Amino acid sequence: MAKELYALGYEIEMLDAFDETVGHAGCIIRDPSGTLHDGWDPRSDGAVSAF
Q: Would the N or C end of the chain have less CB density within 10 A of its end CB?
């Protein structure tokens, strides 16, 4: 994909896996049964919580 974007004229910068540049994310998902699932970026010291 990066090669194709570069060929179209986009400037491409490749980052290592889990690079701090990308930021930190977290989410909570409620599935159709009502169960909550959560996850967060392992690079951060944050957490996800719900009740």
A: C
Cβ distance 29 to 48 under 8 Å?
no
CB 40 within 8 A of CB 24: yes
Distance separating alpha carbons of residues 22 and 17, to the nearest angstrom: 10
Contact 13, 19 (CB under 8 A): no
- Does residue 32 surpass a pLDDT of 90? yes
> What pTM value is reported for the model?
0.45
* CA distance linking residue 32 with residue 6, whole number of Å: 41
Q: Where are the domains positioned within the chain?
A: 21-51
